[in-house]
């Protein structure tokens, strides 16, 4: 199966979920046009409170739709945009890509992965028990955060559902994604 954009979402407010759109426009160095998290410096309220001058490594939030499939087997109903992501993907193992991976979305947009999303208490406010469901453990007992990846916009462009996603891995040695 080819990797595709399943849905795109954005919101001008700092709400937990984001409404799905027919398209979004990625802006080089900023994020999603009109989205509350767009900008060169951090926009997530908890990070702004600590240091508003930090670079925004969370311009674009991507989640794999396979997570929604997994959550459904656990009794949760989650749709595109409801966990605050801008791009919902299918057919790509986002969590196991290395830091610095470039995702080419649609005709011209390029997002470079910066790290993992760290799920917060808002997830349980959305659906009780969901926080635990988006966390797991690997064979060595290490915490696995399943709630998506974050990135920055290297090249702008319009992105729509159905667009192909192409992957460019960074040079070796690869570094695993860490929380940003």
Automatic annotation (TrEMBL):
Gene3D superfamilies: PK beta-barrel domain-like (2.40.33.20). InterPro entries: MoCF_Sase_C, MOSC_domain, Pyrv_Knase-like_insert_dom_sf. It comes from the Bacteria. Residues 18-168 form the MOSC domain. Pfam families: MOSC. This is MOSC domain-containing protein.
């Amino acid at each position: 199966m080819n990797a595709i954009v399943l849905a795109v979402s954005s919101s001008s407010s700092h709400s937990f979920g984001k409404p799905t759109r027919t398209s979004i426009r990625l802006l080089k160095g900023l994020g999603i046009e009109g989205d509350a998290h767009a900008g060169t410096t951090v926009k997530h309220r908890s990070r702004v409170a600590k240091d508003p001058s930090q670079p925004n490594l969370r311009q674009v939030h991507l989640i794999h739709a396979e997570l929604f499939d997994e959550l459904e087997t656990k009794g949760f109903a989650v749709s595109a945009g409801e966990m605050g992501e801008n791009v919902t993907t299918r057919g790509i193992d986002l969590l196991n890509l290395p830091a610095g991976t470039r995702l080419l979305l649609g005709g011209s947009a390029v997002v470079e992965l910066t790290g993992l999303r760290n799920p917060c208490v808002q997830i349980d406010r959305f659906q009780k028990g969901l926080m635990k469901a988006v966390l797991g453990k690997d064979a060595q007992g290490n915490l696995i955060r399943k709630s998506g990846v974050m990135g920055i916009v290297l090249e702008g462009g319009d992105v729509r559902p159905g667009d192909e996603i192409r992957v460019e891995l960074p040079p070796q040695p690869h570094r695993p994604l860490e929380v940003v």
